[in-house]
Write a structure and sequence with these properties.
single chain; alpha+beta; 3-stranded antiparallel sheet; 1 helix; 19% strand; elongated
Length: 130
């Protein structure tokens, strides 16, 4: 029964308990912050994928439109597409902007080259921003 007479080794002191609580709270906080940041990255990635899916759908729609109709209503070249459009996806409002330009292909000459290109609108470049 010699071990019962030494009361010093029976438990933890108050300082040791406070230091342990401090370390556990720091570690728990770091784990919580890491989890929160990971959750934000995952949510942002899912939103980006949804926006990309909508933009791909819009591009597929533009591919089936007649070539003469590809353009914006208020821009140049004129066409049937709006300048901007709002799409609601699961409560998320996404603004899509259409940018369409005529491109002069230098392989058949340009307006300033010899021979001069009399029809400089060789093809259309479509850009979408969401």
């Amino acid at each position: 029964m010699k071990y019962l007479t030494n009361y010093k080794d029976k438990g933890f002191t108050l300082i040791e308990v406070l230091i342990a609580i401090f370390y556990i709270s720091i570690l728990s906080g770091l784990i919580l912050i890491t989890f929160w940041n990971l959750l934000k990255v995952i949510i942002a990635g899912r939103i980006s994928l949804q926006i990309l899916s909508i933009l791909e759908d819009e591009m597929e729609y533009i591919k089936i439109v007649n070539y003469e109709d590809i353009g914006t209503r208020n821009g140049w070249p004129r066409g049937i597409l709006p300048d901007e459009k709002y799409v609601n996806l699961n409560g998320l409002n996404i603004k899509i902007k259409y940018f369409i330009r005529n491109i002069d292909d230098p392989s058949d000459g340009t307006v300033n080259s010899t021979p001069q290109d009399t029809a400089p609108a060789d093809y259309k470049l479509v850009e979408l921003e969401g």
